[in-house]
Amino acid sequence: MTEAHFALDMRGITKTFPGVKALSNVNFRVKFGTVHAVVGENGAGKSTLMKVLNGSYAPTSGTIRVADKEVRMRRPADAQALGIRMVHQEINLVPDLSVAENVFLGRMPGRWGYLRRSELVSRTQAILAELGAIVNPRDRLGDLSISQQQLVEIAKAYAANPRIIVLDEPTSSLSEHETAALFRILRKMRDDGIAIVYISHRVKEVLQIADEVTVLRDGAMIETRPISGITASEMIRLMVGREVGNVFPKSPATIGAPVLRVENIGDGTHFHDVSFEVRAGEILGLTGLVGAGRTELAQAIFGLSRLVEGTVTLNGRPLSIETPADAVRAGIAYVPEDRKGDGIIPEMCIRENISLPVLRKLSRIGRISRSADRALASEYVRQFAISPPDGERRINLLSGGNQQKAVIAKWLAAKPSVLILDEPTRGVDVGAKAEIHNIIGRLVGEGMAVVMISSELPEVMGVCDRVVVMRGGRASAPLLREELSEERIMTLATDEEAA
Fold first, then answer.
1. Which of 111, 287, 352, 365 lies in the 20 to 30 Å Cα band around 80?
2. Are residues 297 and 309 in contact, defined by beta-carbon separation less than 8 angstroms?
3. pTM summary value
């Protein structure tokens, strides 16, 4: 194969920051008309390599060739001019603009300074339909769910007719149904000759969609292989440099009396007539297609929105929750889906983030006890193996998995009876997933009641004792662990008659 068949050829890429070598002599080549996956643990160098590719970072050394032509990119606009588009895991859009305005931001159709709005809307509608996204082009972006915003981000990149498209964890907020729709469009783009770089922690997805895979570890390229010649267990071993046991371990726990019970609750808009209970020592799964009302249900129980019908009881006592502060006082904690947007305060250190929900308990006569504050953070940093183990480190400098462990620690500091986890392993690597599930296993072993929202069916089936499937804002009767199968869950999630 000649060099001209390569859309991208990065050679000897090294990137150093003060005191840190983020990339070390990485060689990375992607062919036109292929899906090339990049895998590795958080901190392996994937994001740094992609930031070099999209012009955000200049390499310390090394060369980049695009379609056999050596290029130098000093800013993202240079990469875009070469036909390189990046879809970030964290939403990178303008919330106050419409969906259509975001999709064509910087390239809006017009003439003589006038925007052709009808053309803007119709072109956006056609792209969204091709992606299988049920989104109104006229809607304000900030009013959409995280999963819908992610689809708009993908539509924006696709609308630019890229030669190379980089997708960073594109399915982290998508259901299995939406992931299948995305894979259809990726295969079409591949067949049209576009080179696709696909970054994911979901090994099953990589095996489904990729033609080739490159494994990074500790800033170095470990191996590039055709996907047909590698197994899931081998890929995981190459990623982490060690054998990893069951990623979704089921920890033994004694299930006790009901702790949280919701009866016929609804918010009048997103969910209606939902009933279930979760018991001490139990993990109750809440799954279904994105948009089924799962997150809205969790937020209403936690006081982030109002219930208009039904009752919530905790340990047999009726609750009236108007605000999150009411929920925390009652003994309910909620770890949100959008870790960076809602779970952490990026400019604060680990210690300050962990202490936030319990500042009153750490205070005397209006002053925070610094020794108690540091002791609390140190205990959770040690207990959850947060790396690096420095409570004074800014939380936004941690990997996604370590940020998530800190967010869980933050709410456990409030000593809740019920912990609601919304997509707890979204966007974290295989090793961190196993660590987070071990933490959850310890919590239920100590008698905590856990509600876990997840779009990842192997996760739901691996760790949950019972599962409630939501569809169109309504909930199924709980399925027992021995009744679970992907087919049954998906039937309940998609089939109105079965539900």
1. 111
2. no
3. 0.62
